[in-house]
Specification:
Elements lengths: L1 H33 L1 H4 L6 H37 L2 H7 L4 H42 L19 E8 L5 E9 L8 E12 L5 E14 L12 E14 L22 H24 L6 H11 L6 H7 L3 H7 L2 H67 L6 H25 L5 H5 L1 H18 L7 H24 L1
Antiparallel strand pairs: 1-2, 2-3, 3-4, 4-5
Length: 490
């Protein structure tokens, strides 16, 4: 039996790593396509690009891991069924549960490892990735001088070239407007040719010009006259030296992003949720205290309640106060003043509540984000195990290996899982339902489906046989028809 278990594990390990790499590659290409504009044309070193890809792949592991488990399970048991190996094992008296046992045990270890990865590695990768992306966003693009077009990539200079060599080393018909004094186009340099070089640290640019002249407009000596003197300086060679800002990568401090919900492990999230919950209660209490009340007694009661000393006689007086008797005993003018004051207080309270609503909603949504991240670490690990119970029986039922049919079924199931997970998280984040209902919604749907498929595959039931379902519904229809006929005859 141990040899059989090792054989099944070896059959599963190969497709698992292959599908994991394929899933990561596809998700990585999708991610890079979204952020392509922020990466291209900034002269990033290969080490920076490799670092960016590494952090991104760690973040994408949350989606790639369950998909790889599902696809590998379908491929493994699909191959066993297609090659009649699964049939031979069942003929030898080995049940599907015992055949799935080594894969389930391996899935448990992988689920535990995935939880540790999500809880410990991904928070660190997230902080590094966000810090690196923020640094890249502030990095200016490389200076690219195109023929016949003015380029403003260099601070305080506008450059146009008529022609340049294929390697870009030599420039011809150069025109440069100098804006260093911020006085407009008062200084222009024209040269027949030149070379542009940026230092290796990308902090300085050296521009060597040949056979040209510089025109400069001088300030008028007499402001009442509309004539402007100018000066022309001819040169055979002239060098321009300018400082380049924002061309080098300045890394941001990772600690800036340490309080983000994805940058924390579960123990840190519990601390943040507790702190945010207390802050939310304090915020709500402050809103209640800032409301206008007709009686100072009510305000005092709220203040006492906030200090946990609300067990006083004032609360009893407030509870048993008979407002109707007070109004009857009051004079007409007093009742009018009370009603007018109550209306003004209600209007002021309505405005105050409306202004505070957005603030409270934002605080609740932020609190829900931390709670969602705490739950997602567990659902991610459990999803890896659930997809084994879905993929293994599906592979045994369809009996198709390779990447054809298993890939199609895996993608369809994973899309359904992703849609349900995203929808449930959105509902929980917006406080439509509780946190656990939103995050665990997809798990509660797919877990019974996995148990059902495993039961059907273990008993060799026909799951995808259309005739079986048509016969089932036909029997129900005939039964209802006979029942209605019997009622009519009565």
């Amino acid at each position: 039996m141990k040899r059989l278990h090792w054989y099944i594990i070896k059959s599963f390990i190969g497709p698992f790593f292959v599908t994991l790499i394929i899933s990561l590659f596809v998700l990585l290409m999708q991610f890079l396509w979204v952020y392509l504009d922020e990466l291209v044309g900034k002269g990033l070193d290969f080490s920076i690009i490799l670092e960016f890809i590494t952090y991104t792949m760690a973040m994408l592991m949350t989606n790639a891991m369950p998909l790889a488990m599902l696809l590998a399970s379908i491929m493994t048991f699909g191959d066993l069924g297609e090659n009649n190996e699964l049939l031979a094992m069942k003929a030898a008296g080995i049940s599907l549960y015992r055949i799935m046992k080594p894969v389930i045990v391996l899935g448990i270890f992988l689920s535990i490892g995935s939880f540790y990865f999500y809880n410990q590695v991904i928070p660190v990768s997230y902080k590094k990735l966000i810090a690196l992306m923020s640094s890249i966003r502030q990095l200016r693009p490389e200076i690219i001088v195109k023929e016949g077009i003015f380029s403003n990539d260099i601070d305080n200079y506008s450059i146009k070239v008529g022609k340049k060599t294929a390697d870009g080393n030599m420039l011809y018909d150069i025109m440069i407007y100098d804006h260093t004094e911020d006085k407009g186009n008062v200084t222009v340099t024209i040269a027949d040719s030149g070379t542009m070089k940026i230092t290796t640290d990308k902090k300085y640019m050296i521009l060597n010009l040949y056979s040209g002249q510089t025109y400069s407009e001088m300030p008028p000596r007499d402001r009442q006259k509309s004539t402007f003197p100018s000066r022309t300086d001819k040169f055979q060679k002239q060098s321009m030296f300018t400082i380049l800002r924002g061309m080098e990568l300045e890394r941001k401090d990772e600690s800036i992003f340490r309080n983000s919900n994805r940058a924390l492990n579960n123990s840190q999230i519990v601390y943040f949720v507790d702190s945010l919950g207390k802050e939310l209660e304090r915020q709500r209490t402050d809103i209640a205290l800032n409301l206008n009340y007709l009686s100072p007694l009510t305000t005092n009661v709220f203040k006492l309640a906030r200090n946990d000393t609300a067990t006083t006689q004032e609360i009893k007086l407030l509870q048993y106060a008979d407002i109707d008797s007070i109004m009857v005993k009051s004079s007409s003018s007093a009742r009018t003043n009370i009603i007018s004051a109550a209306l003004n207080s209600a209007r002021n309270n309505a405005r105050s509540i409306q202004q505070s609503e957005d603030m409270v909603v934002a605080s609740v949504r932020n609190l829900n984000r931390f709670g969602l991240e705490w739950h997602k670490k567990y659902t991610f690990a459990i999803a890896c195990l659930i997809f084994i119970f879905i993929g293994a029986p599906l592979g045994a039922i369809i009996r198709k290996g390779g990447l054809g049919m298993p890939l199609v079924i895996s993608v369809i199931l994973f899309i359904f899982y992703w849609i349900m997970s995203t929808t449930g998280e959105k509902f929980a984040r917006e406080s439509v339902g509780t946190l656990w209902q939103g995050v665990w919604f997809s798990t509660l749907v797919f877990l019974p489906a996995g148990i059902f498929l495993t039961y059907k595959a273990a008993n060799d039931s026909v799951v995808f046989n259309v005739n079986a379902y048509s016969e089932f519904f036909l029997r129900i229809f005939n039964f209802l028809k006979k029942k209605n006929k019997a009622q009519v005859d009565k």
